[in-house]
Backbone:
């Protein structure tokens, strides 16, 4: 019983963490190095994460500077950024790439907020699926005679408390991200 609860909590934590990672890739009105986490650059024939071939810094609120370690791939980095869903225009001077992050239009803000809500809903569904798996495992243990009916009820209540806790964390993360997206 305790083992099921521990595994359930670990899985729910991972769902919330995955959501927060996803939120980092949603553009807001400010510059952030995390925006470039999912961008891959062709490097010696392999798609390589941008942060493994360059230094990404944010010297100002709306400016990102990318300094490749190998100057030969500067145009590849530029192409990868242009192909991404970030809708930004990189410019390079042969040594570094500068990206001005323009303020988002009201329409784009609402679009990104909707994307964030969808991500949060997927995370909530994942947490509920984990709850269902845990409850199924507990019922199986009861059927096998490893748990009494009272222990099953108590364990299901604990799993529900975990579910409520992590759904609330997801809701808080969403609210925080929406505020970040919608602030001007």
Residues:
């Amino acid at each position: 019983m305790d083992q099921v609860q521990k595994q359930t909590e670990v899985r729910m934590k991972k769902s919330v963490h995955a959501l927060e990672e996803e939120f980092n890739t949603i553009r807001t009105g400010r510059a952030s190095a995390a925006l470039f986490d999912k961008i891959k650059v062709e490097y010696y024939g392999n798609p390589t994460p941008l942060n493994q071939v360059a230094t990404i810094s944010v010297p100002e609120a709306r400016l990102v500077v990318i300094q490749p370690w190998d100057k030969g791939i500067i145009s590849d980095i530029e192409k990868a950024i242009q192909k991404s869903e970030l809708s930004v225009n990189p410019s390079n001077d042969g040594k570094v790439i500068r990206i001005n992050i323009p303020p988002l239009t009201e329409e784009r803000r609402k679009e990104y907020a909707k994307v964030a809500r969808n991500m949060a809903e997927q995370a909530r569904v994942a947490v509920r699926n984990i709850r269902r798996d845990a409850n199924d495992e507990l019922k199986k243990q009861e059927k096998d005679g490893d748990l009494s009916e009272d222990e099953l009820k108590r364990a299901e209540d604990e799993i529900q408390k975990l579910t409520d806790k992590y759904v609330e964390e997801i809701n808080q993360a969403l609210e925080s991200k929406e505020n970040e997206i919608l602030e001007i």
